[in-house]
Design a protein that fits this description.
The chain is an alpha/beta fold and about 850 residues long. The chain is built from 28 helices and 34 strands. The structure holds iron/sulfur cluster.
């Protein structure tokens, strides 16, 4: 049956959205017949063009119905069979049997265990994990009922953003993903050179970004990619691939700076006017003049010029290539240089961020059409910037805040240096499982302190057990605490290792929601598609029932119905006019309100409510040279005196005095005021510490060496973090193999398709090997987000990259996923099933 047949068949098309942790929020539509989803479509609501692009989703969003209706979807409250007050046999967590129980029994157990633990150990002993993608309360990273009941411990630190928020906020006064830190999508078409540093938008920013990059390519831009593998985006866009060893990007950047300096091709005027700290003549008052960036690069005081020869030995890029790239970057204008956060998700990632901005600013590509020095872009249809052109209204209610522990996440208050030294901030995310298991954590401000976590409560879709570093330690942590509860959609690891599992409803099963505004041109009203399965309930209903049991007014937790909240957002939505004024998006009458049983005030607007709801999508019409364009830092470039950036000097701070101070406050690692190269823990130098370069090249047998391969974990096209891993169709289309260069494979005796064991100091997993020339020698690639499945020997048969990852802390508490050393050995056990034949409905249980 063709698409037109589906369009004409009986049933109703309902617009909703992909709501998962990629953050993209692409349009999704379902044909619903007799309460069943017959098929899915993405945005086909209007003809597609580069100026007025459809908000199309990727394969994951188009597979939502397989996730929503999967066999392992949780439908009833469950209790671990051998659970007893205090935990019972805690070693059975993760492999015990389940018993179906009533909601009343489940809620009574959770309520009484929370009260018992709170009274005996205090609220600090309760750890809340997870994040907000399913939660209807954006930005609230914990359960509101717990907040009203005295609060709980939460985590801080950076996952996706790596070292960027702290360093960017310090050096340039902002780190504003998806808004002012990027130029408008039309600007990329003006760039003549586009340098993509660690970027793979085809996989990590699925949705429209590749489409916009293609327009730039059609307009004649040359694309240069710098990465450790020939990633799928390069197959479409790249004019040149420059392979680089993981964790050595700073060395390459310093050598680029060296070439620009000795050839005098950098933009001295820009540096003099808009930056501090590049050379001895432009240092902040009081700062040692010899500590400037230029003299460090030239080796004036340390006697080590950061020449292309020096860098080449570290990063693997030839001196000739470094010279050529530096000259091209400095002379071809306009240039856009974009980094993903991946090179900053390393042990020395903060130094990469410093060097990236510094070298970008040396070229002067800031604040002019087609020019951009930027980083980030983590999701769907964001990536390109500018202030919103359409925005939602407020939900019309607030929730209790956590009175015990501040929630400083996502480039938030800690990254901006705006914190209270007396406050409790909880546990750094990378070490959370280590802290629970060991009883010690690194307290922000006060250093290593004891911590006594007795209970873990997982809310939202996120899944910290699987997604935080060191899965084996997570199992230890879960088997240590007295009580663990998870509200979830599926039997994820967070649920599997809990005592009580509460089945939550998904966004497809709620009344409606205006999705978080991250795409500046589009507002999507995600409408209810089907009823919740079995006895699944909304998060806020669950929370309100618990609050009642604690004597708290449930209206504090669920002040409005979800329907009323969503219509408040929709009816309060505004769209920008050509003169810059805002007008209501929706025209609503009293009859509209009465018919839907919602409260509100009738008002005029651009689109009548009924008409809007036919599609549920509003997209601002755009054309080239319209009045909605945005050039990153255009105001600052035009008038740095009147429009300074938010740093102490009002300029970009190449020499950043506050950065070492901030690092000292965190107490996890150190940094210099200007970009220096320091080898990473788990980096190239450590991999080769026991071998000279020649010995490494000559070595025929890698098996004799411990952990000499550098493993980077990448976003996969089949998962959004851990979400969608239970969709067999996606697992079949995008196999979760470990990619290894054919030269390394040859040394170990691995053939394409062999199963191999990948081991680090933290754990081991088994995967099928993809032997390929698309990844550089010495590097292996593993997609992140697969669900761990430990066997009786502790081997992870699910292939979770976090099984390999250590809990080491650095910077502002960011994860160091891309400086992880591994070894690879042949799998010698029984033949293994292929990924898509693995089951997540309980058939393949852990067999400890
Ligand atoms: S890009 Fe992200 S939001 Fe869009 S369909 Fe894919 S997973 Fe969903």
């Amino acid at each position: 049956m063709g698409k037109m047949d589906w369009e004409q068949s009986e049933g109703k098309w309902i617009t909703h959205a992909c709501f998962f942790a990629c953050g993209g929020r692409c349009v999704n539509r379902s044909l619903v017949r007799d309460g069943k989803v017959i098929c899915q479509d993405t945005d086909s609501l209007h003809p597609d063009s580069p100026d007025y692009p459809q908000q199309r989703g990727c394969a994951r969003g188009r597979s939502l119905r397989h996730a929503i209706f999967s066999k392992d979807r949780l439908k009833y409250p469950l209790k671990r069979k051998h659970w007893r007050v205090g935990g019972g046999d805690k070693e059975l967590r993760g492999r015990d049997e389940w018993e179906r129980i009533s909601w009343d029994e489940a809620l009574d157990i959770v309520a009484s265990e929370v009260t018992r633990i709170k009274n005996k150990y205090g609220n600090k002993a309760i750890l809340a994990t997870g994040y907000e993608y399913r939660n209807v309360i954006p930005g609230l990273y914990t359960a509101p009922s717990l907040n009203a009941y005295g609060g709980c411990t939460v985590t801080w630190g950076q996952a996706s953003q790596g070292a960027f928020p702290l360093v960017a906020n310090s050096m340039k006064g902002s780190y504003d993903l998806g808004a002012t830190d990027f130029s408008d999508r039309y600007e990329i078409r003006k760039a003549k050179l586009i340098v993509m540093w660690g970027q793979n938008p085809a996989w990590s920013q699925a949705g429209n970004p590749m489409y916009h990059y293609l327009q730039a390519k059609k307009a004649g831009a040359r694309f240069v990619f710098i990465d450790s593998w020939f990633n799928p985006s390069m197959q479409v866009l790249a004019d040149e691939w420059i392979p680089i060893r993981p964790g050595t990007d700073t060395a390459l950047l310093l050598a680029l700076a060296y070439v620009m300096i000795v050839h005098q091709v950098y933009d001295q005027d820009f540096l003099d006017t808009y930056c501090v700290g590049f050379d001895r003549y432009h240092m902040p008052s009081g700062a040692p003049r010899e500590d400037n960036f230029k003299d460090y690069v030239l080796g004036t005081y340390d006697q080590t010029p950061k020449t292309p020869d020096w860098a080449s030995k570290i990063c693997g890029v030839s001196p000739e290539k470094i010279e050529q790239l530096a000259l091209e970057m400095a002379t071809v204008k306009p240039m856009t240089m974009r980094a993903s956060q991946a090179p900053a998700r390393t042990d020395n990632g903060a130094r990469f961020v410093q060097a990236f901005y510094t070298v970008g600013w040396m070229t002067g590509n800031v604040g002019l059409p087609g020019s951009e020095i930027s980083a980030g872009g983590s999701a769907g249809n964001m990536v390109f910037g500018g202030p919103p052109l359409v925005r939602s209204g407020s939900k019309g209610c607030t929730w209790p805040a956590n009175p015990l522990c501040q929630p400083p996440r996502g480039g938030g208050m800690l990254a901006k240096g705006n914190y209270d030294p007396e406050a409790y901030y909880g546990i750094a995310m990378p070490e959370v499982w280590d802290a629970v298991a060991s009883g010690y954590y690194h307290d922000f401000i006060h250093g290593v302190q004891p911590i006594d976590i007795r209970m873990i409560w997982k809310i939202g879709d996120g899944g910290r057990m699987n997604q935080n570093p060191n899965f084996s330690r997570a199992v230890e942590a879960y088997r240590k605490v007295e009580f663990a509860v998870a509200s979830d959609l599926w039997m994820t690891n967070d649920a599997r290792y809990s005592d009580i599992v509460l089945p939550a409803s998904s966004m497809w099963e709620r009344d409606a929601e205006v999705l978080t505004q991250i795409n500046r041109e589009t507002l999507i009203f995600a409408q209810k598609v089907v009823d919740p399965p079995g006895e699944a309930k909304e998060d806020l209903w669950i929370e309100a029932q618990l609050a009642k049991r604690w004597g708290i007014d449930p209206l504090l937790i669920q002040p409005l119905s979800t329907k009323q909240m969503s219509f408040n957002e929709l009816l309060g939505a505004e769209v920008i006019c050509e003169n810059g004024d805002w007008e209501p998006l929706i025209k609503v009458t009293q009859e509209d309100l009465d018919r839907r049983g919602i409260r509100g005030t009738p008002h005029e607007g651009r689109v009548p409510l009924d008409q809007f709801l036919e599609t549920g999508v509003y997209q601002v019409p755009r054309h080239e040279d319209d009045c909605f364009g945005h050039v990153q830092y255009a105001d600052f470039r035009a008038d740095p005196e009147s429009c300074p950036v938010a740093t102490p000097s009002g300029k970009f701070e190449i020499y950043c005095e506050q950065l070492p101070l901030r690092f000292k406050e965190f107490g996890l690692s150190e940094i210099d005021p200007v970009a220096h190269y320091v080898p990473a823990r788990g980096g190239y130098e450590e991999a080769h510490a026991c071998l000279s370069e020649k010995e490494y090249q000559d070595k025929n047998d890698l098996k004799g060496q411990n952990f000499s391969l550098q493993c980077i974990s990448v976003h996969s096209p089949n998962r959004s973090h851990q979400l969608f891993n239970n969709v067999a169709q996606l697992r079949e289309v995008f196999p979760h193999d470990v990619w290894i260069n054919q030269l390394d494979a040859q040394k170990i005796g691995i053939q394409k398709g062999d199963f191999v064991v990948v081991s680090s100091k933290s754990g081991s997993l088994v995967r099928r090997a993809k032997v390929t020339s698309l990844v550089m020698p010495g590097v292996v690639i593993l997609g992140q987000g697969a669900w761990s499945m430990l066997d009786k020997d502790g081997l992870d048969r699910g292939g979770n990259a976090n099984t390999l990852q250590s809990s080491e802390l650095t910077g502002e508490g960011h994860c160091t996923w891309n400086t992880t050393l591994v070894r690879i050995d042949q799998w010698t056990g029984d033949p293994l099933d292929l990924d898509y034949l693995m089951s997540f409905d309980g058939e393949l249980e852990e067999t400890l």
